[in-house]
Amino acid sequence: MSVIKDGKEVRKLQAGDTFGEQCLFKKFKRACTVKAHEDVTCLALSRNSINKSLGEKMEIIRYRNIIKWAFDKSPRLVLLTKLQKEKFLDLIDIVQVENSQPIMKKGAPCPFLLCVLDGTLIIVNTNKI
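Given the sequence above, the corresponding structure tokens read:
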């Protein structure tokens, strides 16, 4: 299956991949078209069914999917196998950062990889301040 946005394929879906979760959380309308290239069987779950079954875990699933997509956009991380990506996802901590709180300081060692899930980060060159 292909995910198509503005006439261009932006992602290929394989067995086990998911789509539509952004619409479940934010009540968005679909921003992309999903098109089957062959006969496909899909599992469809309503928002109510998912919330009843998973509750708070649904947010974690949504974040895991965002991180998977980030892996696929990275020239280095895209080279990981599906199993390697899953192992990384099992080790991830989701942290909240307060407005204006520094996450990393220039010159300090970088002990982790970051993936922005919600919100916006600003990179500040402290040499110019």
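The mean pLDDT is 79. Try to locate this feature in the token string yourself.
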